[in-house]
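Weekly structure sync, notes
Attendees: PL (lead), two postdocs, one rotation student
Agenda item 3: pending single-chain targets
PL asked that the sequence for the first pending target be pasted directly into the notes so everyone works from the same version. It is reproduced below exactly as submitted, 591 residues in total.
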Amino acid sequence: MAAIRYRIEPSDLAAHLFEVRLEIDRPAPRDQVLRLPAWIPGSYMIRDFAKNIVTLSAEAGGKKVDVEKLDKQTWRCGRLLADAMLCVTYHVYAWDLSVRAAHLDQTHGFFNGTSVFLSVNGQEDQPCLVDICPPKAAPVGTWKVATAMREAKGSKGAAKRHGFGLYKADSYDELIDHPVEMGDFTLASFKAGGITHEVVLTGRHDCDTERLCADLKKICQWQIDLFGGRPPMDRYVFLTMVTGDGYGGLEHRASTALLTSREDLPWKGMQGTPEAYQRFLGLCSHEYFHSWNVKRIKPARFTPYELAEESYTRLLWAFEGFTSYFDDLCLVRSGVIEPAAYLKTVGDVITRVERGSGRLKQSVAESSFDAWSKFYKQDENAPNAIVSYYTKGSLIALALDLKLRGDSKGKKSMDDVMRALWAQYGETGVGVPEDGVFTVVTEVSDEPTARWLKRAVTGTDDLPLASLLKSLGVSLTRVPGQRPSIGMRLKSKSGKAVIAAVHEASAAHLAGLSAGDELIAIDGLRVSADSLDGVLDRKAPGDRLAVHYFRRDELMSSVLTLSPAEETVKLMLAAKPVAAAKRLRKAWIGA
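Predicted structure, written out during the meeting:
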């Protein structure tokens, strides 16, 4: 039997409390330290999950053990009797409806191990048993369990597939990498790469699971084939919480936790692939690609993870950026969407990146390093100060792919880069050093290409996407919008039009408007967050508008001069590309 055992039970659904019991057969004879992670891999921000531990007590040999809290997430148990098993019982408040933490109510339960399982200092490499218990409340008698964690076959009380009971993990690191969903969920499945993939949908929905599984099968199979045809896990689970307006995902070694709007799911009789559904498929594709890129090909700084404090790396552009490139590319190359839909998506990404002046101040390497303090803690000035290593990182991957294809006349591509990274780092378990991606690109292509990539990653220049796309028979044009630009974003707050962000050097900025100001009127007429676009539709660049607004409780006014309309990037297939470009384009996106 494992030396470390956990028992977790939804003890009070209405109060959103899990009760956890931790049993340690061979604790340190004195001063046994227990710790809860401060962050969860894949989400680079200190979350302080320990704040949700409501009560904690310990006993050994039938006697109470003194427990001292050492810091915000660490406890120390006092002197123990010789050979006595240490038992720690604690309650965890679970009311965070996200993919990162834990959530519990009368409809379902969900948890990541980082939110509920204390680690045993000095025994993190020990095997763990987990007894996942059902709630005692009568209305939940039909609840099932969904997780990629292995059932503890051969142990008394072992769980059956989708049942409550004993599960096992080979170490604490594995234990916290298997999120768990419990409830009366919808379950569907398909096979790809010879293994079962499960789709779990929690929440009310009208999803056409047959269509969803058919599309996911194509996506997963394409990715499996990219990396050599053999999945890096024995089974995979898409754990999906369906809500009115949710969106998000977090990767794990054999599963992903997803949050989606029910409007983004396919329905019976749906024609084509609407943008909302394409967005959900892109999210699934992104998290599945992470099964290779970040869960197994990972920065050396993350081997092992140090979850008590920040772990800094300048490589997130390669792990999130490259993944963000392949997530949508996979959709078109697997045949789930058409090339035109893919090019529209890429054009939208270019547009978003170019509208933020932060890209001219911060490189994606810097953005990666500062993820803990800037990217995951964005404020109203974020568009003017930072760049996303997701979006610009994906454009760097796009540019690198196009460059590799063009320079080698189609013999090399980003596919080769990913396969080389997998062979050198994923299959070996060796962490990628901070310069490792550049070294791999040198080996796949040449040193000048690696130097080009390093300049793109460490610099702030815009990428030469127009010329690179043209070499593959794709045109990039910038189309002006229909209305003049005011350069600010409004949000509705208690019926008030409040400025959420002001873009640098925009009309709003030059007029002295700031985030937090409550917009009252334009040219003497009341304005709201919903009516602003209608006002601008009747104006032209250069028009001067009298603006009244509250800053705090003081009424202020200004004159604002409208700027030219913002441009949107459009990508189109060239009608008659030269033969070489046509051949490269077909190999790239099948067009």
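Discussion points:
- The chain has four domains: 4-183, 185-276, 292-475+574-591, 488-565.
- The radius of gyration is 26 Å.
Action: rotation student to compare against the earlier draft before next sync.
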